[in-house]
Amino acid sequence: MKAVRVASYGDAGVLHVEDVSRPEPQPGEALVRLKAAGVNFADIGMRAGRGARPLPYTPGLEGAGIVETVGPGVRDVRRGDRVVYLSRLGSYAEFNTVPAAELVPLPEDISFSQGAAATLQGVTAHTLVYEYYTVAPGAAVLVHAAAGGLGLLLVQWFKHLGATVIGTVSTADKAAVAREVGADHVILYTEQDFAAETKRLTDGRGVDYIVDGVGRTTFPKDLDAVRTRGHICLYGQASGPAEPLAPAALMGKSITLSGGNMSNYVQTRDELLRRAAAVFEGIREGWLVVRIDHTLPLAEAAEAHRRLENRGTIGKVVLALDA
C-alpha cells in the first residue's frame, strides 16, 4: 500500500509517500480501507518533533473509510462497515489498523470527507463546549482561531446554545467566514489588540469563557480579556506552548484555568459514541456545518501541512484517498 512516511523530524519537506507493507489486524483490531484523512495541527507538531514518535512513522490521527477485515475477537464492527476514528496514528495511508472499540459507525448520509473533517474536531468541540464551563444563553465566549476547522465548529456550537461569540482571526477573509457561521464580533488580531477590543465589546467586563488553541501568542492577554471569576481553557499550542504561569497570577480576578485534553473525555466507547453522535446530529439538523477548505491527494500531504501551518486555510484540510 501507499503511505506517507516521516523518517526524520523537520519541515513539511520530510513527508514522503512510500510503498509499505499492508498491516494485518491483530486481536481486537480492524483493518480500515481509508477514503479520507483529516489534517491537524497535532500532525504538524509531531512532524516537527514535539511529542516525538519513534521514526519512521506514518502521520495522521483521524480517518474515515470502510472496514476491510477484522481480527480475532472483534464484535463492534464487521467487514463493509462505514467507520470513522479520531485518535489512532497512521491515517495518511491507504489502510490502517485500529482497535475496533475506537471505531465509530459513520452514518450513510455523512460523507467520508465530512466524517474525516468533523469527528476529531467535532468531539473536541463537544468537550470544550460542555466539560469546562457551563455556557448559558447570553454568556460571552471568546474563540481564538475562529476560522479554523475547530474554531468554526466552536462558533456554531456556542451560538446554538445562545451565547454571544467573539472570534479572533488573522485576515478579513477569515473574519467574513467566522461571521457567516454566526460570530457576533470578529477581531483581526493582526490589526487590533484582542484583549482591549474584547473589553470594549463587553463594556469593560471581559468574557465569561475563553477557548484557546493558539497558546504562546494569545494566552498572556487571555488573562486580561476574561472577566473576574471567568474561565480559560487552554487546549492547544498552534503558536507554540504558552509560557509558564505563576498560580498567583490567577488570584487577582479569581480566574479558573483548565488544561483541555479531549482524550481524557473519551476514555470509554460509550463516551466516544455519545459525543460523536452529538456531532452527527448537529450536521443532520443543519446548525453545524463542516467547512472543508482544501481536499488534496495523499501525494500532496506536504502541501496540506504547508497550507495549514502558514494559516492559509479557512476550515478543514482533508486528504482524499482512492484506495
3D architecture notes:
This protein has 323 residues and is of the alpha/beta class. It has two domains: 175 residues, Alpha-Beta Complex (Quinone Oxidoreductase, Chain A, domain 1); 127 residues, 3-Layer(aba) Sandwich (Rossmann fold). 28% of the residues lie in helices and 26% in strands. The strands form three sheets. Strands 3, 4, 5, 6, 7, 14 and 15 form a seven-stranded mixed β-sheet that branches. Strand 11, helix 6 and strand 12 form a beta-alpha-beta unit. The longest helix is centred in the middle third of the chain and has 19 residues. It is globular, with a radius of gyration of 20 Å. The N and C termini lie close together (9 Å). The mean pLDDT is 95.
List low-pLDDT spans.
Answer: none
Distance between the termini: 9 Å
CATH architecture of the largest domain: Alpha-Beta Complex
Helix content: 25-40%
Roughly what is the average pLDDT, rounded to an integer?
95
Helix and strand pattern: EEEHEEEEHEHEHEHEHEEHEHE
Integer-rounded radius of gyration = 20 Å
The tally of domains stands at 2
CATH class of the largest domain: Alpha Beta
Number of strands: 15
Q: Overall 3D geometry?
A: globular
Oligomeric status: single chain
CATH T-level fold name of the largest domain? Quinone Oxidoreductase, Chain A, domain 1
Largest sheet: 7 strands, mixed
Structural class: alpha/beta
Q: State which percent range the strand residues make up.
A: 25-35%
| CATH H-tier superfamily of the largest domain | Medium-chain alcohol dehydrogenases, catalytic domain
The total count of helices amounts to 8
